[in-house]
Design brief:
By secondary structure, the protein is α+β, with helices and mostly antiparallel strands. It has a single domain, classed as Glutaredoxin (3-Layer(aba) Sandwich). Helices cover 44% and strands 20% of the residues. It contains four helices and four strands, in the order E-H-E-H-E-E-H-H. It has a four-stranded mixed β-sheet with strand order 2-1-3-4, sandwiched between helices. Strand 3 and strand 4 form a beta hairpin. Helix 1 runs parallel beside helix 3. The protein is globular, with a radius of gyration of 12 Å. 28% of the residues are buried.
């Protein structure tokens, strides 16, 4: 299984929804809270091609995008394959 990283902030409903989906699928993930660390937010933006909103989700080396993108992958049946590598 690929590693999963999700950049979040505590009060973000979309972050909670993305984490809920991953947890429901039995996927472990590393959560990176960018709310109090500008350097972490800058690192996230560099990895996410300038996107500054949270969540930003990475599966392996692939930038998935945000919550809506994650749910779209799941809905289209592509999430499991991406997670499997």
């Amino acid at each position: 299984m690929q590693t999963v990283e999700i950049y979040t902030s505590p009060l973000c409903g979309f972050c909670h929804a993305a984490k809920r989906l991953l947890t429901a699928r039995g996927v472990s993930f590393a959560e990176i809270d960018v709310s109090r660390d500008p350097a972490l937010r800058q690192a996230m933006m560099a990895r996410a091609n300038g996107r500054h909103t949270v969540p930003q989700i990475f599966i392996g080396e692939a930038h998935v995008g945000g919550c809506d993108d994650l749910y779209a992958l799941d809905r289209d049946g592509k999430l499991d394959a991406l997670l499997a590598g």
